Structures are given as C-alpha cells and as structure tokens.
Amino acid sequence: MISPPGSRPPHANRNKAREGKGHLLLPFCLAPVWVFILISLLSCTANGSESSAIVVTNLPYLNVAVEKYNSLDPDTPIQLRPSTNPAGELNGANGQTRAADGIIARGIPYPQITGSLAFLDKVLARLPWHASQYPPFGLVYGTEQQEPLGIPLAVDYPVVVFQFSNANPPRTAEGLSRLESMSMEVTQLRTLAAAHNRLAGGAYNRLGFDPRWDDAFLMGVMRLTGTAFTAAPETEARLTWDPQGLEQALELFRNWHGEGGPTNEQVTTFDQRFGYDPWFQMIRDNRVGYRVMGFSEFLKLDDRFRRDLQFRWLAIDGVIPVMELPVYGVISGNSRVSTGTEQFLSWLVSPEGVFSVMHAWGQTGLPGNHFLGGLPVTPLNNAWHQEFFPGTPMPELFNVRFPEAHPAQWDRIQQEVLLPWVREHSRMEAGSPVDHGSLLRALESWQRLHRFE
C-alpha cells in the first residue's frame, strides 16, 4: 500500500484540530448530541415485533426521522437497528435472528449486494416525480438496468470557506473584483488563493490554499474531471477509472501554485510552522485564505466561529460534485414487510417527510445539517430551500454530479490507498507521466489484505 509522502498538514486533519486552540470546548458541546442519539435509538429499537419493519443504519441521526414517522401511527412501524455493517444484515448475518427489511446508510448499495435487493418502483410511484428526473448516477440500478434498487435520500456538497472580507478581493489580472455567484469555480479559487500568498524572508507566512489540505477538494475535482472511479467486482483491484480524467486532475493539482509560486517544500514548511490552529482560526487570523469541506461540516461549526465566515459551492464549469458516500435507501428482496418499508422510504423523501424531519431536527437544538446529516434529494420540489436556508441559493439537482457505483469499503479504500497515492503523485513535477500501474498494484494489495473483513 502506498503511503503519503509525509504527515498530512495538522490543520487538514479534522480530528487533530480539536487539540488546537479554540477547540477545547467542542467535545463537551457535542456530548449532548450523542446522549440524545443513544436515548432515541433505545426508544426506536424497543418493542420490536414481527409486524414492524427492521431498518438497519449506520447513521447516528436517523432516529429523528423514525420517531416522527412512527408518531403517525403507520400500519407497519419502523424498528431501527444500528450497525457498523448494514449490508451484512440483509440475509440475517451479523448474529441477528431476523434479517433487515431495509437499509438506510452511507456506503451502500455496492454491486455485491444488488442481487439481494428489491426494486423500488413502488416507492417512486408514491412520489411526485419520476425516475428520469434524477441526475445521472443518482438512482442505483442492478446489472440488468431494469428498475432502481437504491434511492438517494441525502447528499453533501463541498464548499469553499473564507472570510467575509475576502468576498471583495483586490481586482486581479482576470478581473475578479467580487464573488457574485453562490458557486466558485476551481480556476477562480486558484486565482484568489494566489493573491492571498505572502512571502517573507524566503518563507511564506500566508497561503491562500493548497489542494492537498482537503480531501473534499481532491475528490470533488477528480469527479468533475471525469476520473469516474467505478466498482469493478470482476477485477483484482475492484476498481476502474478513466486515465485521462485522473491525469487532468493531477495536472491541475501539480500546477496549482504555478511558476513563481510556493514550492512543495515551502508549503510543507508553512504547514509545519502554522498548522497547529484549527482551520477556522487560521482563516480568521488571515493565515490561510480558503478551505474546502462538506457543507454539513461547515454547519457544525459553532455560530461564534462561523459568523464572520462565508462559503461558495465548489464547481467546475458550473457543475457541483456530490461528495462521497451519499445516504441511500434500499429494501431487501426477502423482506416480509416490504410494503411497510416502501411506505417509510417514500414518506421520508416526500415533501411532507422532508419538512417533518427537518423541523424535528431543528427542535432538538443540536448542531449540524437538518436531514440525515445532509441535504434532501428532491427532484422538482425544493420548497425546503426557502424554508430552511432563506436567501442562500442551494445546488439544483440538474447541476450536480453524483458518484459512480463504488465498491464495498469505499471509505477505507479512499483513506488508505487512493488519497495517499493522489497526494504523493500530485507533488511530482508538472507534465511528468502518471503511473496508473502503481495505483492498480496498491489497490490489488489492499484487496488481498482486507477483502473479507
């Protein structure tokens, strides 16, 4: 397995950020979240019966939706079962006596389980839109491409975060005097970030942005350049990609600072000198100009720290990438109460369900996003935009790009193989050839070690 060319910048590590200044209170602020979730999960999973539908999840906030739905006294109430391996419970695995009727989770569905899933045509029939109105790769189909097997429920989008004062930067050679759109093109970010750099005594004491700081930026750009990482169960690596798309993304990363800009060594020195503070503090101190993260992560930031920050959706040619691991809903092909599970899924993504869940989450007083940890996926029905995010233009589904079908354990593959490889190869000289074979070998090695976990 390929290792990164050095430790990641401390301010790029979300967990280590808590060790920095200004973050000491966050664990205590978030403690009520987990207490609330634990109590709610116990109530949702109690009193399960054969007449209820078992929905397995790896989401800590689905309990809010289940409580609201069960309060409507449906014919088939939902019994929630937390699991770190939701797909393993489709056929009664994981030591459970009763198999799951449905799954709502991140990281599913992947090709190895699609043969165990039911068609979702009845779910879609209950909604005020048609399957054709989802963007490409939004709905998940099996190998026969008949009816959908997986429906997207919630997504996250990458945002570029910066100070209010940086919204009106000095006029640049490209004529960027202000940010008028709610999206920021990658080329625009590069120009604005370069204007933020400050060199003093041979070392930088301010940097606008470096691509290797943020996973959300690396993965989002690779999606928008057409890298198309796609599950390939028949291969040893379990993954294929478009070489030209990957090469285009790497060339952008390698050329980010351009001739005369900071070198890799100077960026590393900057990270070592100044990377001890949380990312938001570095922006507020004007040490860095921009960071890229998920919108849900931005919303989790306490209002005290967020009040002088703003954001733009990351885009290339106007298209915004959906971040990795959207929340999907599926139904087991062997479910004995499939009708009840279908009714819950269709309610959850319906306008009524979306408003009900988002209002319920707001009433908890807990931080973060309002809908299953993300934003609802509702073709042709965006009334929640104005209700919950007034004055903030939200991405429209016809203008976003979903991930392709990914293999099992995609989150681990990203973190342990793909992103370390991308960081290492993005440090190489611009124009140098891309060694696709080294990525393939790293993936094959990882699969041999972890395939059966």
Helix vs. strand class: alpha/beta
Domain count, please report it: 2
**Strand content of the residues, in percent?**
5-15%
Determine the fraction of residues in helical runs and give it as a percent range. Answer: 25-40%
Distance between the termini: 17 Å
Question: Which oligomeric state applies?
Answer: single chain
Task: Say how many strands there are.
Answer: 16
Total DSSP helices: 15
CATH 2nd-level architecture of the largest domain: 3-Layer(aba) Sandwich
- For the record, what CATH class of the largest domain applies? Alpha Beta
Mind summarizing the main beta sheet? 6 strands, mixed
Strand order of the largest sheet: 2-1-3-14-4-15
Which runs of at least 5 residues are low in confidence (pLDDT < 50)? 1-48, 168-178
Integer-rounded radius of gyration: 22 Å
Task: Briefly note the CATH topology name of the largest domain.
Answer: D-Maltodextrin-Binding Protein, domain 2
Task: Please provide a written account of the structure.
By secondary structure, the chain is α/β, with parallel strands linked by helices. The chain is built from 15 helices and 16 strands. A hairpin with a 7-residue loop joins β9 and β10. The two termini are 17 Å apart. The longest helix has 20 residues, at 26-45. It is globular, with a radius of gyration of 22 Å. It folds into two domains: 10-25 and 157-321 and 409-450, D-Maltodextrin-Binding Protein, domain 2, CATH 3.40.190; 47-154 and 325-388, D-Maltodextrin-Binding Protein, domain 2. The protein has a six-stranded mixed sheet with strand order 2-1-3-14-4-15. Strands 6-12-5-11 form a four-stranded mixed sheet. It has helices at residues 26-45, 62-70, 121-125, 186-196, 215-224, 243-254, 264-274, 279-284, 295-300, 303-306, 338-349, 351-364, 383-388, 410-426, 436-450; strands at residues 53-57, 78-82, 102-106, 151-155, 158-163, 183-185, 198-200, 203-206, 230-231, 239-240, 291-294, 309-315, 320-321, 327-331, 375-376, 400-401.
